[in-house]
Amino acid sequence: MNKAQLIEAVTKTTKMKKVDTEMVLNTAIDTIKKSVKKGDDVTLIGFGTFTKTKRKARLGRNPQTGKEIKIPAMTVPKFRAGREFKDAVR
After folding, report:
1. Residue 20, by phi and psi: left (phi above 0), alpha (psi -120 to 50) or beta?
2. What distance in Å separates the CA atoms of residue 46 and residue 35, rounded to the nearest whole number?
3. Rounded to a whole number, what is the distance in angstroms from the first to the last CA of the chain?
4. Cβ(82)–Cβ(89) under 8 Å?
5. Cα–Cα distance between 10 and 16 in angstroms, integer?
6. What separation in angstroms does the CA of 27 have from each of 13, 47, 75, 90?
7. What's the CA gap between 31 and 6, in Å, rounded?
8. pLDDT digits over 5-51, tens only?
9. Per-residue confidence at 85, pLDDT binned at 50, 70, 90?
């Protein structure tokens, strides 16, 4: 399911206008991005937690040449699924 299909499904379920549903979804996603970027965790009970995590610098290998390359340290987003979400998928 992509974003357009998600908007369509939520529109049918809530009977909201498609434009309103898209605005709500975009606002929710933007709010999560901004909060995690600031360093705040976003927890949606039953769904999961969005966090920001640091990766250490490391050595990698170029798969085409086999040559070692340095991969710099970086900050990356992380999602940890909640128990209810995990149970629903199983």
Report:
1. alpha
2. 19
3. 18
4. no
5. 8
6. 19, 18, 23, 30
7. 18
8. 999 999 999 989 999 999 999 999 999 999 999 999 999 999 999 99
9. very high
